[in-house]
């Protein structure tokens, strides 16, 4: 989650069926963690946020620096840090979300591979010091109303692009909301990254659509992609072959 300081609300939680949910003073779910398997990616859209793994060579899939904009319930952060064992940075503006993750969602303390930064995501990606620093960028920025991304203009997506390694850096973005909002968001991403470097996955039942955007990626042939998907499933337990069936290039703009 990320928002502007004047809009911040406190983090709350609920539990049902062995799953703990993060909320922001509303019924909207901001993240989830299965108590018996805290490193498992519980929500389907969060699993799909890891589709960037298909765009990376098999022997490099867990190498480099992974950045998350918006902490949520810490699922992606825990997975990148503790399962993939990547150097991991997360940027979250709401201190109550960070505190909730430390108390209730088993977010480990900062160490040589983990940095939790309390900051505005737009300001963070605009800092020159972060240019080219990430191989992976996960963007999930919603407030308590969950109507559309909090940060969603071309300047923000240009900052995201600049944070990525120019030679194969990959970003995933969670888009949730009205069809018009989705179209506007994808067109802004395409304007920044180039249409041939943007792909979409099918929406989840809840209406989350994950967008993948990359810098300088050459998509391999079907056999290589299938081998990558099989490796991801075998080693990390994620449904990568299913992702492969639902990935599509960004369609041409209407009209």
What pattern of helices and strands is seen along the backbone? Answer: EEEHEHEHEHEHEHEEHHE
Poorly predicted ranges (pLDDT <50, ≥5 residues)? Answer: 1-6
Major beta sheet, specifics? 8 strands, mixed
* Integer average pLDDT: 91
CATH class: Alpha Beta
Please, could you describe this protein's structure?
The chain has helices at 44-49, 75-83, 95-104, 121-126, 154-163, 179-193, 222-236, 240-246; strands spanning 12-16, 19-23, 29-34, 65-69, 87-92, 114-118, 136-139, 170-176, 198-200, 208-214, 248-249. It is of the alpha/beta class and 255 residues long. It has one domain (5-249): 3-Layer(aba) Sandwich (Rossmann fold). It is globular, with a radius of gyration of 17 Å. Strands 6-5-4-7-8-10-9-11 form an 8-stranded mixed β-sheet, sandwiched between helices. Mean pLDDT is 91; it is low at 1-6.
Topology:
Elements: E1 12-16, E2 19-23, E3 29-34, H1 44-49, E4 65-69, H2 75-83, E5 87-92, H3 95-104, E6 114-118, H4 121-126, E7 136-139, H5 154-163, E8 170-176, H6 179-193, E9 198-200, E10 208-214, H7 222-236, H8 240-246, E11 248-249
Parallel strand pairs: 4-5, 4-7, 5-6, 7-8
Antiparallel strand pairs: 1-2, 2-3, 8-10, 9-10, 9-11
Which key phrases capture this entry?
255 residues, disordered N terminus, 8 helices, Rossmann fold, three-stranded antiparallel β-sheet, globular, alpha/beta, single chain, 22% strand
């Amino acid at each position: 989650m990320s928002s502007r300081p004047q809009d911040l609300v406190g983090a709350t939680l609920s539990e049902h069926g062995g799953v703990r949910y993060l909320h922001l003073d509303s019924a909207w779910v901001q993240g989830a963690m299965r108590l018996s398997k805290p490193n498992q990616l519980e929500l389907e859209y969060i699993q799909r946020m890891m589709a960037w793994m298909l765009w990376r060579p098999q022997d490099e899939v867990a190498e480099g620096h992974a950045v998350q904009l918006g902490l949520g319930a810490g699922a992606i952060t825990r997975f990148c840090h503790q399962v993939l064992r990547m150097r991991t940075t997360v940027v979250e503006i709401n201190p109550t979300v960070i505190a909730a993750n430390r108390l209730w969602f088993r977010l480990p303390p900062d160490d040589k591979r983990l940095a939790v930064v309390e900051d505005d995501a737009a300001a963070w990606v605009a800092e020159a010091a972060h240019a080219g620093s990430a191989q992976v960028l996960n963007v999930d920025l919603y407030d308590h109303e969950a109507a559309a991304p909090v940060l969603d203009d071309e300047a923000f997506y240009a900052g995201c692009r600049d944070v990525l390694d120019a030679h194969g850096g990959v970003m995933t973005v969670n888009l949730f909301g009205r069809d018009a909002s989705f179209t506007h968001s994808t067109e802004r991403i395409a304007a920044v990254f180039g249409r041939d470097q943007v792909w979409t996955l099918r929406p989840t039942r809840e209406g989350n659509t994950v967008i993948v955007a990359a810098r300088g990626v050459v998509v391999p042939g079907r056999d290589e992609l299938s081998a990558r998907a099989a490796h991801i499933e075998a080693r990390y337990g994620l449904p990568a072959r299913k992702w492969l069936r639902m990935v599509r290039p960004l369609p041409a703009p209407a009209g």
